[in-house]
Amino acid sequence: MSTTLAHNMRPQCLQDILGQERLVGKNGILSQIVKKRHPMSFILYGPPGCGKTTLAIALANDLHIPYRLFNASTGNQKQMDALIEEAKLSGELFVIIDEIHRLNKAKQDHLLPHIENGLLIIAGCTTANPYHSINPAIRSRCQIFEVKPLTKDNIIQGLKNALISNNGLKNQFQVENGVLEYIASLSGGDIRYAYNTLEMASILSDDHCIHLQDIKKNLTHSNVQYDKDEDQYYDTLSGLQKSIRGSDPNGAMYYLAKLITANDIESLERRVITTAYEDIGLANPNACMRTVIAFQTAKTIGFPEARIPIASAIIDLCLSPKSKSSESAIDNALASLKEHPYSAPEYLRLTPVGLAEDEKYDYNRSDLWEYIQYLPEQIKNEIFYTPELTSKYEQALANNYQRILKHGRTSNIKKLNHTKKK
Fold this sequence. Notes:
- There is one protein chain.
- It is built from 20 helices and seven strands.
- The chain has helices at about 5-10, 20-25, 30-35, 50-65, 75-90, 105-115, 130-135, 135-140, 150-165, 180-185, 190-205, 210-220, 235-245, 250-260, 265-280, 285-300, 305-320, 325-340, 390-405, 415; strands at about 40-45, 65-70, 95-100, 120-125, 145, 175, 210.
- Helix 6 links the parallel strand 3 (about 95-100) and strand 4 (about 120-125).
- Helix 13 (about 235-245) packs parallel to helix 15 (about 265-280), helix 15 (about 265-280) runs antiparallel to helix 16 and helix 16 packs antiparallel against helix 17 (about 305-320).
């Protein structure tokens, strides 16, 4: 049975992993797990071809513990039960779960107690951001590590290894100048794609030399069409966000065009909607809502037509007034909470105990609500929200805010409740 070049070149130990220094370097977390012989459950997330499953297998090999592969999309309850029984017999088992974000609730509930007691050590692999896509019950029992797309230099090194390795092309081919750089520039950080392209090029060769022109002629599409100087997917997403923030629709369209080639509406959606609420926010809330609707439409119609509503929303955001006041407000509140974790005043609690009726929050006195003190007494004068007056909308909010600040608030609910209704 023949196997692919990508399969044959898969590293079997952490020291052979390309890139990912943060994880497998001398002080990387996975290296430390091996050094201390302390296996633990974790989730690896990153784009296709960056080496998530390979990392998990290499770790299991270095720890010298048995591992099994389980696909969350296609694996069934019977297969899961078999893994659990095997773990009970051996005392522990390392289970690599591909597409872990697709585990349904029944499978999750079945796994949780065995992850909790350490019978199963899992390495979940996913292309989706686990903070958005994985159930909190699984997340809380695992460490989360991001696996970055490989750099161009990483991929060139991998291709060089493949040319000379006994598991690869065994020194049977010469390559023209520029071939490896060209393959790497089209791979979008995906080493599997790069290996597949090199393997195709070797099949095309009749003279044991891999020619650049043959690759250009027969390669029907690139993985992600990034240019030589900017082949990182997340860097391109960052370029898009910064272009929106900087009110440059031309820059935004350029980066959007590059991202469209990846056909990844979900990543675009997360980044652009986040940008809308982070950078435009209260300056133009309607633009934020229009962005959400645009991506709902885009997912309904799919590419290539999806480019139209997405482009419309992004230009809208680019040329909109900007305000980070809501993000700053919640960040200020979170910072304060770390220093001052106080409880809500008694009169705000759902079922206050020991208060007279006229000392309780009155649900029927809407005229009093803006006069009530809502912050705990110890931090009653804290100010978290500072308006940014970049639009008429937030200016109107600021005017109302200043009016309320001017008359102040009180914790004397009894006195408030005895004031006459206006």
